[in-house]
Amino acid sequence: MPASDPTFKITPSTTRLAAAEREKELKAIQFGRVFTDHMAVVNYRNGTWQDGEVKAYAAIPLSPAASVLHYGQAIFEGFKAYRQPDGSVSMFRPDENWNRFNRSARRLAMPAIPKDLFIGASEALVAIDEAWVPSGPGESLYLRPFMIATDPYLGVRPSETYMFLVIASPAGEYFPQGLKPVSVWVSKDYVRAAPGGTGEAKCAGNYAASLLAQAEAKDQGCDQVIWLDAIEREIIEEMGGMNLFFVYRQHGEPVVVTPALTGTLLAGITRSTLLDLAADLGLKAEERRLRLTDVLQDIASGAISEVFACGTAAVITPVGEIKGRGFAQVVNDGGNGPVAMALRDALLGIQRGTAPDKHGWMHAVPLGSAPR
Length: 372
Ligand SMILES: *Cc1c(COP(=O)(O)O)cnc(C)c1O
Hints:
Layout: E1 8-10, H1 19-27, E2 38-45, E3 48-49, E4 52-56, H2 67-71, E5 74-76, E6 79-83, E7 89-92, H3 94-107, H4 115-128, E8 140-149, E9 162-171, E10 182-187, H5 204-208, H6 211-219, E11 224-228, E12 236-239, E13 243-250, E14 253-259, H7 269-280, E15 284-288, H8 292-301, E16 304-311, E17 315-324, E18 327-330, H9 338-352, E19 362-364
Parallel strand pairs: 1-4, 10-11, 10-17, 14-15
Antiparallel strand pairs: 2-3, 2-4, 2-9, 5-8, 6-7, 6-8, 7-19, 8-9, 11-12, 13-14, 13-16, 16-17, 17-18
């Protein structure tokens, strides 16, 4: 069945921003604060997904007893739609986000959503709000699919009703002044995920539990948190909402290394994309366990030449300094490294449509039929 097959009832907003107002928003993009004119909504009840609707972006009706508000059944995704050189719009690997969404749903005892609904909702939203897809370098339309439990019931059990929504926010160049390396704080007091927990699920609760550690990092003068494993508090897992890469030099050749997926870190789609792109660029790539003490020594000795983080929002962010209680280690003189830059350019080229998409990662959005 083609992805655009499910019927979405389209109810155009009567309060759309005028073109001039929208252009103003797109000139000074406020990512995550400004949303497009519409949203897609699909309800789940009686064991099935109902027909979807695309309608004006607005507050949603929710009982104060809705179980998401009390027991936190809430999952989300994030991916981007990019304006292509020919004026069309393509989304980056939305099928991977759909896969991960359903893995998260399973972990939180929520229903799976069919691919045609997940992708179709995103396509229908992008089509009607196409004018919101910016075209500048590094700009995109960020799509945020999410699902919440809506049963008005305080008993502790999986909800029987859910709401799936997609909202969209224009995203600007993440580093308008050029890439700026971040400093990171290694959290030994707090843990993000434990074996058997929800670390691999993209669920709202993981983020709630990370905010205090993030505040601690800020207090220590750092931009982000690095999470260690829950048992030894020694194995490097990931950074805030991004996965980590370390560039080793072996016989003068760079080798990119990222923490192996152990079940407690989030399997980033950017992470897996960069592993493929590294191979395309002729770089050796490895997934394995990385100990903090080894990594700090290897940075000090020069065996590690670059550290960077990756994720959908910022693509690639160099790490310039790693700090924790009793240590501070500058990486690569606090600057940008050539491997991070090469991978970033390769990825952005594919996303912007200026480099060939030989892996078939771009998903063209059918724009034709939407009322505009
Ligand atoms: C979403 C997320 C990532 C990055 O995943 P991408 O698919 O690359 O955007 C990494 N870590 C956490 C905790 C996340 O929630």
